[in-house]
């Protein structure tokens, strides 16, 4: 055996992880496998041992109906089983072929039916009494350890295997033997651990999908399936759900090195995830009958249910123990004045107790509070940068009992922070809660040295070989804290959720306060500014009349100055009105006094009011509308929209130009457009023209940038839309829609 370097080991483990164990192309020899397709159950592939089992050649059976091998009666049994909703309700079938009885198992995968046949072992024993006794003993167990003991003892008694043990997968990936029953021939491994590489991930997935796996004789010679590829697809046959599937030669060598010739594995699941295995071993070949295997699978399934139920009970009890602490901390965050996390700092004792941490750091912007046993301020701030990146990327908690395995620098302070449980809130300032778990030095007993890995001499690919020694190996463990429990993670998640809710609540309250202040400001502006502006405008008008009667030499200059003042005051009044409208629209308090409006009348009145402005620039204004159009709208607000759109068109249309005002109906909407042949709007600006304070169009230095925003908001308040099309140098078209009013009701 050649010891592998670290780089060679990484390559070897990758090879193990990619081994195609689902498509070995062969089966174990204690049964026969057929694949069937089509209504006639045509034999698509078959294992080559059909010759020794049935006396018929592969060539004679391929592409023939199942009846060729089994006869009509058995084929009818198979047809009936396939009609069931769940094939497991039919398995195992008892089939008689050529006066010999067989156990048949059916599975369906990748559009092919797999029929596996095993000779029925005689005599058939009735183990019902044993199974009932087992179930009673399991139900009477009050602890998981009692359950483990009952399960392994009864399965050993049922099957005759010399060693039966329960193997639990740990969060770090390795497995530990937590229950065991021995017959005296094979050594025990209770309490010992096995490396994660002993059962690669793809093998674990097959254990998750299948309750049972048997190897009656690890020294078997694989039986090929013929043809090698499926004739219907040209692909290798997936045997992931096959009972007879041939296993990896590496696994057979592993069993040989352990002194095991026969094995059986039963899966233990918790919430559909592989929790562990019941592994059975025997020093000689041993074939367990199908009925006994079924009973063992039932025991494994019941044990899985019990494990899930007891773990759920324990987790719920842990959560309930923490619920009072979580509630106290959540309340503290809600009532904290400055920042939600300040509430946690003020309750440091509860903050440590809620996760069982030995230290905790709370970061609030530039303030870092350390509680209990923690790294230094500088170390925590440096660690935070990495924690923030991890948490914000995943959107979840960061949880580990081996921090230095993820963040190497943390080895400098592993005594106080070997474990970390942390969250970061999704907001733009530095923040974090980081719980630390102190280092717990311990020892682990391994079945063989977990750090020794070998390949076979002369193997250029450095394929990993199973270790030869399974003698107990003691290892000192450092750099790890206690494992954070599911209840610890739950507590951290609940506090994170409460903190986010608290931040959102504060934000809503701040926004409500901002709206209140804004509304007060608008009221002040509306009253305290509009009234003086009205007086100024009136006084300007009165002074203009007085100046017009004065024939002095300064009269023209005074008149021009008063005109400028009057115009500026009018613009200021318009701006105040726009700001008032914007405030109402933003707050959703924009009342509409809707009534049926005749479109022709509305357009004619609007044009009549603006004809003076168009005449001044010699602009032709046309108004066209289909007869009978009616909408339900606020006339004052709709006039505001039309006058704004027409005012803009007049402003940007050159003297001698033309403006068209049109109205027509499309389905249940009335459309009104204002078309001009003015300067147009550049394509880059067009998407922004309805935004607040947009006033970048050339020649509009005095605009507030609110007109189009208000127009669109008014139209939307009526249930319509406003949009624009424009081409520089050609002109613009502004179109808006309003629901039509027909027969006393608005179409919406």
Topology readout:
Elements (H helix, E strand, L loop, with lengths): L1 E2 L2 H12 L8 E2 L4 E6 L4 E6 L2 H5 L3 H4 L5 H4 L1 H11 L10 E5 L2 E10 L2 E8 L8 H13 L3 H16 L3 E7 L5 E8 L10 E2 L6 H9 L2 E4 L7 E4 L22 H10 L3 E9 L2 E10 L7 H46 L6 H4 L2 H6 L5 E6 L2 E6 L4 H18 L3 E3 L2 H4 L12 E5 L7 E7 L4 E6 L6 E2 L8 E2 L6 E6 L8 H64 L5 H33 L7 E4 H18 L3 E6 L4 E4 L1 H18 L5 E9 L2 E8 L30 H11 L4 E6 L3 E9 L1 E2 L2 E2 L2
Parallel strand pairs: 25-27
Antiparallel strand pairs: 1-21, 2-12, 3-4, 3-7, 4-12, 5-6, 6-7, 8-9, 8-14, 9-10, 11-13, 13-14, 15-16, 15-19, 17-18, 18-19, 20-23, 21-22, 24-26, 27-28, 28-30, 29-30, 31-32
Query: What is the CA-based Rg, rounded?
Result: 42 Å
| Arithmetic mean pLDDT | 86
State the total count of DSSP E strands.
32
Helix content: 40-55%
Largest sheet: 7 strands, antiparallel
Order the strands across the largest sheet as they lie in space: 2-12-4-3-7-6-5
CATH topology of the domain at 7-20 and 126-224 and 245-314: Beta-Lactamase
Spans with pLDDT under 50 lasting ≥5 residues? Answer: 744-748
Task: Please identify the structural class as seen in this structure.
Answer: alpha+beta
The number of distinct helices, counting runs of at least 4 residues, comes to 19
The gross shape turns out to be elongated
The level-1 CATH class of the domain at 7-20 and 126-224 and 245-314: Alpha Beta
What proportion of the residues form beta strands (DSSP E)? 15-25%
CATH superfamily membership of the domain at 7-20 and 126-224 and 245-314 = GAF domain
Distance between the termini: 82 Å
CATH architecture heading of the domain at 7-20 and 126-224 and 245-314: 2-Layer Sandwich
């Amino acid at each position: 055996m050649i010891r592998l370097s670290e780089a060679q080991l990484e390559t070897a483990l990758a090879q193990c992880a990619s081994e195609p164990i689902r498509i070995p192309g062969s089966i174990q020899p204690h049964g026969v496998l057929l694949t069937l397709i089509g209504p006639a159950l045509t034999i698509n592939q078959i294992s080559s041992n059909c010759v020794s089992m049935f006396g018929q050649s592969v060539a004679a059976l391929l592409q023939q109906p199942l009846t060729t091998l089994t006869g009509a009666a058995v084929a009818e049994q198979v047809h009936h089983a396939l009609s069931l909703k769940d094939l497991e309700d039919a398995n195992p079938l008892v089939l008689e072929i050529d006066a010999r009885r067989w156990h048949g198992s059916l599975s369906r995968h990748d559009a092919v039916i797999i029929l596996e046949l095993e000779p029925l072992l005689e005599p058939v024993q009735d183990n019902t009494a044993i199974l009932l006794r087992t179930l009673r003993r399991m139900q009477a167990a009050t602890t998981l350890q009692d359950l483990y003991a009952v399960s392994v003892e009864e399965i050993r008694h049922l099957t005759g295997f010399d060693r039966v043990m329960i193997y639990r997968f740990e969060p770090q990936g390795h497995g530990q033997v937590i229950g065991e029953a021995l017959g005296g021939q094979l050594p025990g491994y209770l309490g010992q651990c096995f490396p994660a590489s002993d059962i690669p991930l793809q093998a674990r997935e097959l254990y998750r999908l299948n309750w049972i796996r048997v190897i009656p004789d690890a020294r078997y010679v694989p039986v090929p399936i013929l043809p090698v590829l499926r004739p219907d697809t040209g692909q290798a046959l997936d045997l992931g759900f096959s009972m007879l599937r041939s296993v990896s030669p590496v696994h057979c060598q592993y069993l040989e090195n352990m002194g095991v010739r026969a094995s059986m594995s039963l899966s233990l699941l918790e919430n559909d995830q592989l929790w562990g295995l019941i592994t059975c071993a025997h020093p000689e070949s041993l074939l367990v009958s199908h009925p006994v295997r079924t009973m063992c699978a039932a025991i494994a399934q019941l044990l899985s249910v019990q494990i899930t139920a007891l773990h759920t009970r324990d987790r719920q009890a842990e959560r309930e123990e923490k619920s009072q602490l979580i509630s106290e901390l959540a309340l503290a965050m809600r009532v904290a004045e400055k920042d939600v996390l300040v509430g946690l700092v003020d309750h440091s004792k509860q903050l440590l107790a809620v996760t069982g941490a030995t230290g905790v750091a709370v970061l609030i912007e530039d303030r870092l509070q350390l509680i209990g046993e923690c790294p230094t301020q500088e170390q925590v701030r440096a660690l935070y940068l990495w924690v923030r990146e991890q948490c914000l990327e995943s959107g979840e908690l960061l949880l580990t009992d081996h921090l230095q395995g993820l963040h190497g620098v943390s080895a400098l302070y592993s005594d106080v922070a070997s474990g970390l449980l942390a969250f970061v809130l999704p907001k733009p300032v530095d923040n974090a809660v980081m719980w630390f778990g102190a280092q717990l030095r311990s020892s682990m007993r391994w079945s063989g040295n977990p750090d020794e890995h070998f390949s076979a001499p002369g193997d250029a690919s450095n394929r990993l070989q199973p270790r030869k020694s399974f003698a107990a190996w003691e290892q000192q463990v450092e750099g790890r804290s206690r494992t954070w429990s599911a209840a610890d993670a739950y507590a951290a998640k609940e506090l994170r959720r409460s903190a986010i809710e608290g931040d959102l609540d504060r934000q809503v309250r701040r926004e409500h306060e901002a709206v209140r202040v804004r509304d007060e400001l608008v009221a002040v502006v509306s009253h305290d500014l509009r009234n003086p502006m009205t007086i100024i405008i009136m006084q300007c008008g009165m002074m203009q009349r007085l100046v017009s009667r004065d024939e002095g030499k300064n009269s023209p200059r005074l008149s021009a100055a008063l005109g400028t003042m009057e115009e500026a005051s009018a613009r200021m009044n318009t701006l105040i009105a726009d700001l008032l409208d914007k405030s109402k629209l933003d707050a959703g308090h924009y009342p509409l006094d809707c009534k049926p409006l005749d479109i022709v009348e509305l357009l004619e009145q609007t044009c009549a009011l603006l004809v003076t402005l168009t005449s001044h620039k010699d602009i032709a204004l046309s108004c066209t509308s289909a007869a009978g159009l009616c909408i339900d709208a606020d006339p004052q607000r709709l006039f505001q929209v039309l006058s704004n759109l027409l005012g803009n068109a007049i402003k940007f249309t050159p003297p001698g130009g033309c403006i068209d005002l049109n109205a027509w109906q499309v389905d249940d909407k009335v459309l009104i457009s204002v078309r001009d042949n003015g300067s147009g709007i550049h394509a880059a600006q067009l998407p922004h023209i309805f935004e607040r304070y947009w006033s970048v169009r050339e020649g509009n230095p005095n605009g507030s940038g609110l007109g189009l925003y208000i127009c669109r908001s008014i139209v939307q308040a009526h249930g319509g839309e406003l949009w624009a099309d424009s081409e520089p140098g050609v002109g613009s078209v502004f179109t808006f829609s309003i629901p039509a009013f027909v027969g006393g009701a608005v179409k919406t």
